[in-house]
Known about the structure:
Structural class: alpha+beta
Number of strands: 10
Strand content: 5-15%
Strand order of the largest sheet: 8-7-9-10
CATH superfamily of the largest domain: FAD/NAD(P)-binding domain
Helix content: 25-40%
Distance between the termini: 58 Å
Low-confidence stretches: 112-116, 121-125
CATH topology of the largest domain: FAD/NAD(P)-binding domain
Order of helices and strands: HEEEEHHEEHEHHEHEEH
Number of domains: 2
Radius of gyration: 23 Å
Amino acid sequence: MFELLKPWVGPEDVELERSAVYTFHSAIATRWRNGRLLIAGDSAHLTPPFLGQGMCAGMRDAGNLAWKLGRVLRGQNPDALLDTYQAERAPHVREYIELAVRLGGLINTKAMEAAVPGAVIDGGEAARMSSIKPRLGPGLAAGWNGPAGQIAPQPRLADGARLDDRVGYRFAALLRPDFAASLPAETLKRLADREVMVVADDAPEQQVWLQEADAPAILVRPDRYVLGAARSVQELNALAAIV
């Protein structure tokens, strides 16, 4: 330890009360479900500490799994819905683990000019890494899947409420008002029967997001990831059919 501390202090300056060598692991289980047994969090994947994503990943697992379990147990969806859990979450968590490993190499490097995979060296003086927003892996999908798997924003609606405060823990169909007005009654009934709350709000934040997604309708899951988008009544019906 004093050999490492030699540039700053020595045995004559301080007394070491404790020292420890820490190791970390990065791993992903190959199987997250066996019948009625499902694993999540550290049971399913181990994340290095450098990115602070270990508990975050476990919470994302729980968010993905909770609504699916609820719908299966209530008989709203077949048991096969649970097979989408690992398919969606494993690629997502892998991206964070790989970034955490690269960040660990950056944090622990002895020279800032060292080449670190994934790092950007700015004029030889500083190293930095950009944040990521990975999509979910392949799983539930229907309609137009352009924005599918992205995390949804939290727009402020026309009455000042945030989307979560209006919708709660359920599906939400965010629609352009003119598109909502054109929907046949059977489509609206299908959404209502599947416990999908329709939010046809003209608030700027919601409309900007729909415009950026290039779709008049987006279906958001209870875990606030995008299930899919619709550019026609037929695509919206296809989305409602898999909810």
